[in-house]
Amino acid sequence: MTLKKSFNFAFQIFVRMANIFGSIVKTVYTVGSIPIEFKQKRLDPINAQEKELKRLLRKASLTAFGTYYNFDAILNSDSLFDAFRTNVPVHDYNSMYREWWFRELNGEANVTWPGVVKYFALSSGTSEASSKFIPVTNNMLRSIKRASIRQLICATRYDFPPDFWDKGILMIGGSTHLQYNGTYYSGDLSGISAANLPFWFQYFYKPGRKISKTVDWNDKLNEMVKNAPKWDIGVIVGVPAWVQILLERIVKEYNLNTIHDLWPSLAAYVHSGVAFGPYENSFKKLFGKPVVYSESYLASEGYIAYQIDLNKRIMQLIMDNGIYYEFVPFDDNNFDSEGNIKRDCKTLTINEVEEKVGYAILVSTNAGSWRYMIGDVIEFVNKQRCEIMIKGRTKHFLSLVGEHLSQDNMNQAIDHVSNVMKLDINEFTVAGIHYENRFAHHWYIGCDEPVDKDKILNMIDEHLKRINDDYRVERMESINELFIDVLPTHVFYDFMEKMGKIGGATKFPRVLKGARYDEWVAFISNYTKQ
After folding, report:
1. φ, ψ for residue 335, nearest 5 deg
2. What is the pTM of this model?
3. Among 80, 146, 213, 355, fewest CB within 10 Å belongs to which?
């Protein structure tokens, strides 16, 4: 057999193995032969979290961090949870980096986690100007893979047709090209994860390694549009804004009615990063068939939660996969007016939380994050089942004078306007400003249809008054003016491109403050002059 024939034969075997993988997943899950670590288990959350914290403390006990904070003593204490939160301080990025992570970036081993950290995920959230370097260890990568497989297995209950499991998975993330400085690799978490994909997944993975390595978003977009007819996609994964742009480009390029004219097997969309509500109407127009919407919660710090029930748009915290959680009530007692956590904040364990209360999340992980605030605010829908909804970001709220306007409030108001006025409003942001010795809110709405902007503003205002008593009071007392600008949607993405934050996992901030607001105002001023 010639070398070429041998290669072709081996490739055919590989393709065949890949084609039957999905069917095997469903079969073995049904008969119960899949490894237990990949099953979605019913856990006692308190016991699960206690075991997880013990694992983390034991593993890191001989690191510089573990020695400094005497993890051995914490492990031997009568009350593990109390000893941990009493002896280890709460950290934000600045304190974690300044005191510990900078040493790992310089190649030092055994600082906050055993060994040398090989990967760092670049993250700036949606409001920070400079990049953050979040450590990603091999243990964390294994946890991410485990959670991803669990979510895949969880999808077996959706009763997709058998051939669905043979289809491609289009993952629209940041560039998989990683920078190497001689000590570590850095880049988007999606790039780090893609570099560590199991071999059997390569057949399913689209747009493939070559296109995924493309750094420039517009070049990547063009390549994906060009290659779209070659793919048979069953699942799309990505942030709504960039997925929508890609699908609209494909539909336009090939003169389609909907994306299902090209990808008839498309059955699921896994979204993350932002509330999906503002985008839903636009996606319905792009789809010609029903599509399952599934939410996942994968942050640079770890895989935190995913949706387990098709009929409920809520997610379940992953309690046994390398992360220990604490929860900080998101109120004035624990956070200042800029959303910064206070050093003397009150932290709660999973058994101490209440439903329908906003909490900022602290995580301690197998990547060397310790009591680290990731910046998201969640709410428990069902405490017993650890079911949550993301309500916003600690930095993405307005409370100039005590109006306590959350990102969730804003999303609800925009959804209300979109539904009543039959509009597609995919992007928006709001800023709090000083105005005539008092205060005002300035809304910026992304919409590509002719609209009555004063009507939109009035509807937003009235809806916020109904759902937020603090806002209603302060509108009468201190916030004496509201402003609105309606802009083409592309203006938001043009601004992000100018800031170097286009494509992948980046999101437009729902609240603008400080230097980022000044940059936005200057950008809008130049745009309106053109």
Report:
1. -135, 145
2. 0.79
3. 355
